[in-house]
Design brief:
alpha+beta; four-stranded antiparallel β-sheet; 45% helix; elongated
Length: 287
């Protein structure tokens, strides 16, 4: 009778089945339930879960919540990560999503610039919920359309794709998009500054064209005629109704110009909130 194979022989033949080594990496904020808080993060996760990966994503959630992902770097069209598995050396994970071409970005930026609210929110650091509609109108994909849009590799011996290490990075990417929605754009080939510059340029061109088209073709009035009523308001003061309200975007300056020096952001946010509340109380019936 041949000798019985020991259990650890099975793990030598299938190292991916070994128990994961303890790691204190990036732990998901979500320790139960769904990943992601913002609509764009939830959309990212739902797109991936709609690709028919089935149970291959389940263990990825466990890894993401257990600190197995040691690092994530997001660049133009590619994500690089290190994930602790059953071997001492972490596995190397690569996820690629093809950047959009310059022509595609021009179409997408034009569609976004046509909607003033899109431009305003994006320039303030927010991701409008209807942004996908603008990309769809330009026939440009923002999120992956199918699993073939994603090219993934992992140095682990698991033949499944995605393996649990890739899946863990997928889920933590959703939480990274929560923190900074412009990382999604960066993955598609444009960073925050490039998007802002394009939108400002488009909006400026649109405004200039509109002003030029609406301008009457007539001679400018003489300077003497203008000076006659120079100190008189164009609209009677009693007809001017000022609109006083809290800004729609909280701490809009911080969102537009980026994070302030370390350690002062929370204080600035609190100061803006306090000043807004005090001004409204005084103007609308307070002291």
């Amino acid at each position: 009778m041949p000798p019985r194979r020991r259990d650890n022989d099975r793990y030598k033949r299938h190292p991916e089945r070994r128990q994961r080594l303890p790691a204190d990496g990036i732990k998901a904020k979500s320790q139960r339930g769904d990943f992601g808080e913002s609509w764009w993060a939830k959309r990212w996760i739902s797109v991936l879960e709609g690709f028919g990966y089935g149970g291959r994503l389940a263990r990825g959630r466990t890894y993401a919540r257990g600190g197995a992902v040691l690092s994530i770097e997001i660049g133009r069209g590619q994500v690089s990560a290190k994930v602790q598995g059953s071997l001492p050396r972490p596995y190397q994970v690569k996820i690629s999503l093809a950047p959009l071409s310059d022509a595609q970005w021009a179409s997408a930026t034009g569609a976004m610039a046509e909607q003033a609210i899109f431009a305003a929110k994006l320039l303030a650091g927010e991701m409008p919920q209807e942004i996908e509609q603008a990309f769809a109108a330009a026939k440009v994909p923002l999120f992956p359309r199918n699993s073939r849009d994603l090219t993934t590799t992992c140095s682990c011996p698991d033949q499944a794709n995605p393996c649990k290490h890739i899946a863990a990075v997928y889920y933590l990417l959703g939480e990274r998009f929560d923190e900074d929605p412009f990382l999604l754009f960066e993955l598609r080939g444009r960073n925050k500054d490039q998007i802002g510059a394009s939108l400002r340029g488009r909006r400026a061109d649109t405004s200039a064209d509109a002003v030029y088209a609406a301008a009457p073709r007539e001679r400018a009035p003489a300077l003497a005629d203008l000076l006659v009523g120079f100190d008189e308001p164009a609209t009677p003061l009693e007809l001017i109704a000022p609109h006083v309200a809290a800004p729609e975007v909280e701490a809009g300056l911080l969102r537009r110009y980026g994070a302030p020096p370390a350690g002062v952001e929370d204080g600035l946010r609190a100061a803006y909130t306090t000043l807004t509340r005090a001004a409204l109380e005084r103007l609308l019936g307070g002291e």
